[in-house]
Amino acid sequence: MKYGVFGGTFNPVHEGHLHIARAFKESMKLDKVLWIPTKIPPHKVAKDLAQPDQRLEMCRLACKGEESFLVSDLEIRRQGKSYTADTLEELHRIYPEDRFCLLMGEDMFLTLLNWYRPDVILRLAEICAVPRSVGHEAEMEKYAQGLRARGACVTVKRIPYLPISSTEIREAVNRGDSIEKMVPSAVEEYICRHGLYGKGGNGN
Ligand code: ATP
To answer: 165 CB less than 6 Å from ligand 1?
Structure first.
């Protein structure tokens, strides 16, 4: 089987995530996409971070009805920080016969060599990236060349991106604005019911 591995903070999961996961699935001919919410994001400062179980549950709600999407609590259960290299090693132990494509957007892709044990990541997965802005394709391709020079298999897919971010959604909720078009309705209801990202900082 060929698995897409889609890690992220998913704070909250949004339509931009769903869009690229679907597009990667089609274009990379993936059998399954494993969504893996991270426990403590090592690559970014966590502001207004909802609880791990809440982010996991929102991913489950977003992926409901998508047969090939599986949501995994592998990083949330693991002690300490969530590192992609550790996750890929664990996945290889669990699924020794299978192949893994690590899915990510431009912002994460362009920092990949700063992640923990990058050469382990490059050895254990094909790197699949999509743009998240206009005009940075050449920069992405140059970065891809550098990764390939280290022996990595890298694909930069020209999938049109949706200009949505979790930050924008948290800000909209905090202002009291609608997030209807940015997240699936079940996720919107969950955010509302649990009072996440509101002025009182309930999402922290
Ligand atoms: P935040 O605004 O809190 O930083 P985010 O919207 O970037 O969050 P993450 O959960 O950090 O969401 O992203 C998980 C992965 O999805 C990353 O690889 C990121 O680059 C990618 N991604 C997120 N949103 C988009 C988008 N709109 N288009 C393409 N890739 C995206």
So the answer is: yes
d(CA 103, CA 22): 11
Q: What pLDDT shows up at residue 42?
A: 54
196 within domain boundaries: no
Task: Note down the domain range covering 114.
Answer: 2-162
Mutational test site, ligand 1, from 165, 167, 171, 191, max ligand atoms within 8 Å of CB: 165
- The predicted model scores a pTM of 0.94
Binding site membership of 110 for ligand 1 (Cβ less than 6 Å): no
Q: What is the number of structural domains in the chain?
A: 1
Q: Is 203 in the pocket of ligand 1 (CB under 6 A)?
A: no
199 in a domain, yes or no? no
pLDDT value, residue 39: 87
Does any domain span residue 181?
no
The Cα 192–Cα 145 span in angstroms is 44
Q: Is the pLDDT of residue 129 over 70?
A: yes
Summarize pLDDT for 8-57 with one digit per residue, the tens: 999 999 999 999 999 999 999 999 999 999 987 555 555 688 999 999 99
Which CATH number goes with the domain that contains 40?
Answer: 3.40.50.620
Ligand 1 site, residue 52, Cβ cutoff 6 A:
no
